[in-house]
Task: inverse folding
């Protein structure tokens, strides 16, 4: 557990995303939920011993940010309207509940009995949604919840001015591999500029250590490197399948290693990134030509 503001804390060593919380004078506000069921329950019990949890705000629809919501059955979940619409599809992205339980027998045996447990059958999609922006006041704290599409369509930043902190989800991967498998890269670059314009000292990324605004340039450069790499294939009329056959030196686009227990996905990730960007860059080129 790491303190990142006067009343803000995060956990960067869990498997999955960096779940965080702010301790207000009227209870807790959580940002994303711990991915592993046992981590989620330990967190909840420690918090609820001290004060109630008022809200759980999701930054994005990827499973490592939302699958722990189920273990907070009495907490009001907040998320972008498109996150709510697509909640079940994203939850099932990495398999059915049965498949998850089987995988967990190896990866996290302590959590197996909690998968599909009758007390936690509601997956807890957002109840409170927004389109562009939503402001919540809890105790003495303000939560500016802002739509910043990029890494995903419903991507959301939570700016807490009293703490000087913004929580960005995976619009920022701090010194670990950037996942661009479904992003709109141009929206992502615009989101990084919008984050830069916020009055904050600390940026809490979806993965990696907390950082400052100095890293935003580097994050933008990684997105731009990938765009440039794929554009060269598109310009030469090379399809995504053909491009994937060429040797890929990922380090030229992104110098950082895979984070938080995700190494097994590395090869599949590169393929997903290349297909996504190839499709988007080709579409953009064709739209310009017509
Ligand atoms: Zn993500």
Result:
């Amino acid at each position: 557990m790491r303190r990142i503001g006067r009343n803000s804390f995060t956990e960067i060593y869990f498997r999955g995303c960096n779940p965080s919380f702010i301790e207000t004078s009227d209870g807790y506000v959580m940002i994303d939920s711990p991915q592993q069921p046992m981590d989620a329950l330990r967190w909840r019990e420690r918090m609820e011993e001290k004060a109630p949890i008022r809200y759980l705000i999701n930054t994005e629809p990827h499973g490592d940010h939302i699958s722990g919501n189920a273990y907070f059955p009495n907490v009001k979940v907040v998320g972008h309207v498109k996150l709510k619409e697509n909640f079940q599809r994203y939850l099932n992205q990495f398999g059915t509940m049965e498949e998850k339980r089987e995988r967990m027998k190896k990866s996290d045996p302590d959590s197996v009995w909690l998968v599909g447990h009758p007390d936690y059958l509601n997956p807890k999609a957002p109840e409170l949604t927004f389109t562009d922006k939503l402001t919540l006041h809890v105790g003495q704290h303000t939560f500016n919840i802002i739509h910043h599409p990029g890494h995903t369509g419903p991507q959301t930043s939570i700016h807490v001015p009293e703490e000087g902190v913004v929580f960005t989800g995976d619009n920022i991967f701090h010194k670990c591999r950037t996942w661009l498998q479904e992003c709109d890269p141009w929206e992502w670059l615009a989101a990084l500029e919008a984050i830069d314009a916020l009055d904050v000292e600390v940026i809490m990324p979806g993965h990696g250590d907390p950082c400052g605004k100095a890293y935003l340039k580097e994050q933008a450069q990684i997105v731009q490197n990938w765009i440039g790499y794929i554009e060269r294939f598109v310009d030469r009329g090379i399809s995504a399948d053909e491009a994937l056959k060429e040797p890929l030196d990922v380090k030229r686009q992104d110098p950082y290693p895979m984070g938080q227990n995700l190494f097994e996905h590395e090869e599949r990730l590169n393929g997903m990134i290349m297909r996504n960007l190839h499709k988007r860059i080709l579409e953009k080129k064709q739209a310009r030509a017509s």
Summary: The chain has two domains: 2-213, 219-289. The chain has a mean pLDDT of 95.
